[in-house]
Recover the amino acids of this structure.
């Protein structure tokens, strides 16, 4: 069996989404990539989380062709593989319909950087994609979803996907990534928490302003980069 | 004992509502129909969920006459049986006062199709009935509740009850259905989730617009019909 | 030991508030009355729920004089006893700071009868008292809290405390009652549920209107009075 | 090992934050002080709560120099020590990003004293600091966070930190304190509850007014000071 350890990490990332209340029934999916072998491990489509096993994970190449596995991969596979091809430093991708982040995505609103919880993990607002055109929806829809995310990050000004590891897809829900499947799941959980806090802030005070660039930098760099001071490493 | 398997399925659908936090105390009820025998199995009225057994379920005909069972059937029985008579393809009905869907019903507001979570299960807004007239309330009230639902679906334009398997009853709460009692319960849980998301979207942005018809179609047909691509079947 | 069964019922009513998430730490209290003996059984003040035993309950007369018990009674005792003296048909009183009902009390807003969940238990809006005057606060404050409740029910038009078994005290929180301590606790749980639903309705649509008198009557009388049709009795 | 009992109390205060849902992953921290020895015991930085042991706690002096412990102390240490130096009667400090209190902090809004739940523990609004200047953020940021809190309490009119045991840091989250680490954690839990209630009150009625000074005094003094009447002491 290919990629035993990565399968277990991807399974665990999927289960973390359940434990933290981000997914309902079989909604949501997590994947991981092995860059050396050029292989992606992803959750199968529509299988109950409580019977999900590492060997159920589906292995595909970076173009989404199944290499190993008898189950059908997540229906969002083509978005995952596009992100792996375009964002070459990421190691894991997560997609959920978590309630508050999806509330913003449905409103077509980005999540402003209102506080240090946000700044600790997202070095700027969490952007929202443009709505997909009818042409894109009628075409390779799942692939186009990935293109809409990438277009948002390659816009002007460009956003570094390693510094802002999530995008809300308008009228849909968030896609989140990280250096590994585990980090992608962690970011998805934090994203839902900051979406909750931003929701409270905006409903209390619609004119609320973002934190200063100085505070955004201070907190982000406290947890990221060579001068990080948080934790035990 | 009649309909042993259906009783168990109906019991299980009722318990799923409890597990997912949709009901408080003895509120809520689920039923299933056996179309061949023309019999309905429904939860008894006001019995605690933690002592509810399959043999407590009440069996009635499609006009609500009790055929088997010593307990009084759910007080909402006449709405269930009317829906079975009018919506001839449905196999299960669920009624809850789940918090967010009821919030919309009390406001007399439909739930707009703001995103793909909605589109995956409801092929259009979840409609709200007209308020019942005093005459209807003073008459066969529970039956009239069903008529208000049916009138909403037979209005102009008509709504296909298999494509939009729920209706909010104004000033009351949702009724939800599906091909089976299990699917009706599943739809009730999804309905509450999309009501939550729509609530957040509307309180963030009261002018939020629905997804395009193309996106609504794409997601709905991804999970329904002959070309469905979701899951393992 | 006096009133063994009532102590157990009062203990159980207090624990039901914990199980349903209505109280934090030692907040909240429930009591019951024995009308024949003219004795009240109430939770002691500030004792942790997880060590609370039936024998810790304090027994007082209807004027709040301790008859049996070594612990100090709930600091809200004088409100409870006043309600027992004035509302002569009630058998139990509950006070909580449950989150949504308290949100209304703090806003000085009654809870409108927006739907049938409300109508099933409260035959009209749940009223809010006037704020207490400085004189009342400086005087017998806890007693005055009870007077503010009673004044609201004896106002014009008068409200029947058996038909609307709760009052929000402005700037404070709800007091709830019923035929027994168990029913008072049940009503407190339902009150929080309808406060939640009314909150969603009002934030979705500030101009939302109440249900018709016909619907209010229909649902209230479905569960109350000689012609009740709900449940197995 | 120094300060065995205090370590256990500080560990327990940290775990109470987890049990009450105030912290996500490794967010949040609690500390306690031994005034006689001039030593602070604080949670280590970024260690999972479920493996946290009393011996992992870090002991520092009042200037934040580590005296005992092999792990790096919480990254918020300098705020804790400043508060211990400036607020000389406090015995414990807690910092969380609890959801509703953080919602207010991000909006730059104080939490008004809307009700008696608030008045029981906070003798006035819970204030919000000024945003930190870029200079402060670029300098000794964590120390400056403490200075912003102290400046808010020493402003005009001054606030007694023993009567209002919490401050929201603008664009960040709450810091909370008490006579001990246990009381600081208790206050953090109550703060989140009153933030929730105030959020509901403000979204129901943006013009809602605070309780009268008389009611604020009555409730605060009911639980605090020589004439307290709550509980069994």
């Amino acid at each position: 069996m290919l990629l035993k350890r990565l399968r277990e990490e991807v399974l665990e990332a999927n289960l973390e989404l359940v434990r933290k209340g981000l997914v309902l029934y079989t909604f949501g999916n997590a994947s991981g990539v092995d860059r050396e072998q050029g292989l992606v491990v992803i959750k199968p489509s529509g299988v109950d989380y409580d019977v999900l096993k590492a060997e159920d994970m589906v292995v595909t190449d970076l173009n989404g062709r199944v290499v190993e596995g008898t189950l059908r991969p997540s229906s969002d596979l083509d978005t995952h593989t596009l992100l792996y091809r375009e964002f070459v430093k990421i190691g894991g991708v997560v997609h959920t319909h978590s309630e508050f982040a999806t509330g913003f995505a449905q409103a077509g609103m980005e999540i402003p950087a209102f506080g240090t919880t946000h700044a600790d993990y997202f070095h700027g607002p969490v952007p929202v994609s443009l709505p997909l055109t009818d042409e894109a929806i009628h075409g390779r829809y799942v692939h186009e979803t990935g293109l809409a995310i990438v277009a948002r990050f390659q816009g002007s000004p460009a956003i570094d996907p390693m510094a802002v590891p999530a995008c809300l897809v308008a009228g849909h829900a968030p896609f989140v990534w990280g250096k590994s499947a585990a980090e992608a799941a962690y970011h998805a959980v934090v994203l839902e928490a900051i979406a909750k806090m931003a929701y409270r802030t905006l409903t209390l005070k619609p004119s609320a302003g973002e934190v200063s660039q100085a505070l955004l930098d201070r907190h982000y760099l406290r947890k990221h980069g060579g001068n990080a001071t948080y934790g035990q490493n």
Observations:
- Helices of chain C lie at 4-19, 77-86, 99-107, 116-119, 134-138, 141-153, 181-204, 213-223.
